[in-house]
Structures are given as structure tokens and as C-alpha cells.
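Hi everyone,

Forwarding the result from last night's run.
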Amino acid sequence: MPEKNNYIENEILNLSPVELILKIYDVAIVSCKRKDSEKANRAITELISSLNFDYKEISLSLFKLYHYCQYEIRRGNFDNAVEILKELRDAWAKAFNLK
């Protein structure tokens, strides 16, 4: 198992900032699908902490969407959160020509 952890750690350390954001979206989406509210909320909290409020309009919009996803997760509406997170992830991937 330690070998697997080293591989994952190396993979994460070698990601670009945009790839790291996509990876966090993936964790949030998978966690919602598994109904793991704690892990989903931690991932969304990471997305929130990555916002750059120098770009106030877009950051505030994303903050509101992330906060809404957390609200939906607390209510047990994981499917609503997944839908929003998938759309946001797809937009990031498309904007930077990534998968």
C-alpha cells in the first residue's frame, strides 16, 4: 500500500494548477456519487480556498455555486451537487483543452 500512496503523491505533485483543480472536482464528484458528504465537503472547501478574489465577479459566482453544492449535500441532494460540479469541471477542462 505505501507504494500506491507514493504513486498518488507523485502524480498530484506533478499536476499543473489547472489539472489539480480538475482532480479536486473529480474527488468532489465521486464523493457525492458515493454519498460521502464529509469528503465531498472537504473537496468543495478546497475549491473555495483556491478562488482568487482579485477576479471578484467570477470568484463570487463560483463561491456561490460551491456554497450551494455544500447546502445540497447537507440536505442529501447529492445528485444536484453532482450535476453542478460536473458542469463546472467540464467548463474548466474545455477552457484549458484538457479531459
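The chain has a mean pLDDT of 90.

Cheers,
N.
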